[in-house]
Design a protein that fits this description.
Layout (H helix, E strand, L loop, with lengths): L1 E8 L13 E6 L9 H16 L2 H13 L17 H15 L6
Antiparallel strand pairs: 1-2
Protein name: Histone RNA hairpin-binding protein RNA-binding domain-containing protein
InterPro entries: SLBP_RNA_bind (IPR029344), SLBP_RNA_bind_sf (IPR038294)
GO molecular function: RNA binding
Length: 106
């Protein structure tokens, strides 16, 4: 395998345990494509989360959290850097998006 010289930063969420690496070097070649590699998976998941965070519903919840704090049943952003199956992550993402579409109430 050949290193591409590209480093992808991996940042832990401030409210969660720091289980992730500080950065991961992207490696070219080897078996499989970038889409199937752990780095490709991480980048795809981060992109899916970024798309949801660009929505009006997410901004509404974010403003609500800043003013009222979090409750146990409030939506929580899925962890992109966890080693979980594709279906598990997609279920978390779907549930998160569904919760975001419900208006926050004080």
């Amino acid at each position: 395998m050949v290193s591409t010289g590209v480093t992808v930063p991996v940042k832990a969420h401030p409210h969660r345990r720091a289980e992730a690496l500080s950065s991961v070097a992207v490696v070219a070649g080897g078996q499989g494509s970038m889409a199937q590699s752990p780095i490709g998976r991480l980048l795809r998941r981060r992109n899916q989360i970024r798309i949801v965070k660009d929505t009006r519903a997410y901004r509404a919840w974010s403003a609500f959290f800043a003013k009222h704090g979090r409750r146990e049943d409030d939506p929580i952003t899925p962890k992109a850097d966890e080693a979980t199956s594709k279906s598990f992550f997609e279920n978390q993402l779907r549930e998160w998006r569904q919760k975001l579409h419900k208006s926050p109430t004080a």
